Amino acid sequence: MLTEERYQFILSFLETNQTITIHEITRSLGTSESTIRRDLQTLEDRGLLIRVHGGAKKKQQLNYEPSMNEKKTQRHLEKKAIAQLAITKLQRNDMIYLDAGSTTLEMISLLPKDYDLTVVTNSVTHAIHLLDAQIPTIILGGSLKMRTDAILGSTAVQQLQQLYFDKAFLGINGIDVQSGFTTPDPEEAFLKKTAANQSQKTFVLADHSKFKERSFSQVLPLGNAHILTDNCPVDILSKIQKITNITEVNQ
After folding, report:
1. CA 162, CA 150: separation in Å to the nearest integer?
2. Which of 11, 42, 51, 225 is deepest in the core (most CB within 10 A)?
């Protein structure tokens, strides 16, 4: 099979399935693993996919934003493990910011009832769960973004600028060595950045799929937040560790 035909097979498969393994390619094309690894490297260099351990994943558009319902069904075990790690960063009487997102949502059921925490959030979904958990909560006002259940806008930003936090826990769409922490919506990026600026310490909760991804709007440079993750890809771990702290669940 010609090289360009192999490229087309890989890209077409990713368009439908989002991820592909080297074993799937070699089994389908009868090509050696070394050849396929070179193919994946070439396609990544062209910006057409992202290599991951054992294969590759589809490169998302810069403005791609999965819905909250979609996020809840993806990598649930990894998100729960990251949330458990995030809980270990809390101290009694902390004032915390809990950003909208499926991984931060997993933290709510784990919040210690005897810690006397106060939570500020920009998520209607989070606020409802916090109410059920009887956690003192402030919900920001503003415009509701239906796709992610996030409250955004100037009113929410103005409220945040009057508040100060011990810790902020943020969700994110992409982590890239050059671009830092990114998200598709500029308005949402600005709100996240404001929350981080108002916090003594900021944690970004991100499963392994968020690494080597880049979205439209920068939230923060890498050095401005600590990363909590289930696993950071080995090929970029050392680069990220030079810029910011990163804690993995499996350490």
Report:
1. 19
2. 225
Tell me which residue of 191, 104, 101, 196 sits closest to 155, measured CA to CA: 191
User: 215 — alpha (psi -120 to 50), left (phi > 0) or beta?
Assistant: beta
Place 64 in a pLDDT band, splitting at 50, 70 and 90.
low
State the pLDDT at residue 68.
Answer: 59
Q: What is the pTM of this model?
A: 0.77
Instruction: Tell me the pLDDT of the chain averaged across its residues.
Output: 90
Asked if 34 and 41 touch (Cβ cutoff 8 Å), the reply is no
| 69-83, 103-117, 185-199: least confident range | 69-83
Helix orientation angle between 22-29 and 33-45, rounded to the nearest 10 degrees? 120
Which two three-digit tokens encode residue 1? 């099979």
Name the β-bridge partners of 48: none
Instruction: Give the separation between CA 155 and CA 148, rounded to whole angstroms.
Output: 18
Separation of alpha carbons 2 and 241, rounded Å: 40
With residue 129 as reference, give the H or E element that holds it.
helix 124-132
> Quick one: pLDDT at residue 50?
81
For residue 69, the model assigns a pLDDT of 59
- The predicted model gives 198-208 an average pLDDT of 96
Rounded to whole angstroms, the Cα distance separating 180 from 174 reads 8
The bridge status of strand 217-220 relative to strand 226-229 is: unpaired
Residue pair 67/219 in contact (Cβ under 8 Å)? The answer is no
Contacts of 163 (CB under 8 A, 6+ apart): 95, 97, 120, 138, 198
